[in-house]
Design brief:
alpha/beta, 13 strands, TIM Barrel, single chain, two-stranded antiparallel sheet, eight-stranded mixed β-barrel
């Protein structure tokens, strides 16, 4: 489950915040779209902005010394301000050198006091400089042994941001139980993260992918089970549900042609396969 596969698509995820009762769910105020800094993403924002009241710009990462790197997409931010859309800066532990999320990088910044402080100070400076409403922390592939450390890290960062009136959102893998044998989702302590963060964006997508057997990217029952677990651990008005706008194409012969497919590719693929 790799979020970069999702956000590679222009405004690829529409995020809807739901408040869950025992029998029903009702919309509760936030519709968030993830955007990148490219032209296609900007065009998508201008075309579909009326469907959302928040955007998250996924253009930032960081180095092992806590130095935040990346550029703020000025066109997207200017347009969002014009349309009174709240903006979030996504900070991920994605490492271009390995083309993946880097658990070692995350661990380094969580563990080193100097790096952690530099990282946090730069988040505050970034938010102030570009008038971001909040920061979306997206650390993925966190090591299982760093579970407690990650929760403490979120507490430290969110408290620092709160003092400066900056909101904190944390992206977490979807799960329906705390399973220590699941190295991907175990490191995320929902209860503690939910206690400290203003919002928790549950990544209810990539139920299946090209790394495994063919299946739904986000089946209804799987999403429902994930959200039911989420609201047991986190206040319901903090939980944000992820909605994918992409699919996977499995090469069932030898797997060499398997690939993620963007939303605008799906119609032609369905037609070609007569699905």
């Amino acid at each position: 489950m790799k979020k970069w596969l999702i956000i590679a698509v222009s405004l690829a995820i529409a995020i809807v915040l739901f408040m869950y009762t025992k029998t029903e769910a009702k919309a509760a105020g936030m519709t968030l779209g993830y955007t990148t800094g490219d032209t296609a993403s900007y065009n998508s924002l201008t075309k579909y902005h009326s469907y959302m009241n928040s955007i998250a710009t996924d253009t930032f990462a960081f180095e092992k010394n806590g130095q935040v790197i990346g550029d703020a997409p000025s066109k997207q931010l200017t347009y969002a301000k014009k349309k009174k859309i709240k903006t979030w800066a996504v900070i991920s532990n994605y490492n271009d050198a390995i083309y993946d999320f880097d658990g070692d990088l995350a661990s380094r910044v969580m563990s080193n006091k100097t790096a952690k402080k530099r990282f946090t100070d730069q988040l505050i400076a970034l938010a102030k400089k570009h008038s971001y409403y909040g920061i979306n922390i997206d650390f993925e592939a966190v090591h299982p042994e760093d579970r407690s450390k990650y929760s403490s890290f979120i507490q430290y960062v969110s408290q620092a941001l709160k003092k400066k009136h900056i909101k904190t959102m944390v992206s977490v893998p979807a799960k329906s139980a705390d399973d220590q044998n699941d190295d991907w989702s175990w490191p995320y302590d929902y209860a503690k993260i939910g206690k400290y963060a203003d919002y928790v964006q549950v990544m209810t997508y990539d139920e299946h992918g090209i790394w495994g057997e063919p299946g739904s990217v986000a089946s209804t029952s799987w999403i429902k089970s994930s959200l039911q677990f989420s609201v047991k651990k986190i206040k319901a008005n903090k939980v944000i549900m992820g909605i994918p706008a992409y699919g996977y194409d499995w090469d069932v012969k030898d797997g060499s042609g398997s690939a993620m497919r963007e939303w605008n590719e799906l119609k032609s693929l369905i037609k070609k396969q007569k699905a």
